[in-house]
Amino acid sequence: MYKIEFYETDRGDKPALDFIKELPKDVIGKLTIRLELLEQRGTLLRRPYADKLRGKIYELRASFGHLEIRLLYFYHGRVIVVTHGFLKKTNAVPEDEIRRAESHMNNYEGR
Asked: Which of 51, 63, 80, 81 has a CA positioned 20 to 30 A from the CA of residue 2?
């Protein structure tokens, strides 16, 4: 079993939690179930729930009605560090979002 941790910036912000808190309550409940599934299955969780994007960066995938939600994360040993989330509007994950996750990962691992 893995442990979920939300990335914290040097200023104390938690981008993933801030994103999640802005979602409708029913969506938060369903997303919580996906996070629990990720915590239980870790690297064994595959599409349609999760996918590897590039290098160490993965996405947790969730669709709720018209919302396509993505949480980006990486593994640090047995810890899954969720960097941030966004609403997906295109077929591919935007390059900016992947770079943001990589930047958070580098900051996290550099501490």
From this structure: 63
Q: Which residue has the tokens 């029913």?
A: 26
Whether 36 and 73 have beta carbons less than 8 Å apart is answered as: no
Closest CA to 1 of 77, 99, 78: 78
Is residue 82 scored above 90 in pLDDT? yes
Phi, psi of 82 (to 5 degrees): -85, 115
CB atoms within 10 A of CB 96: 9
Report domain extents, the chain.
3-110
d(CA 99, CA 74): 13
Mean pLDDT, the chain, rounded, equals 96
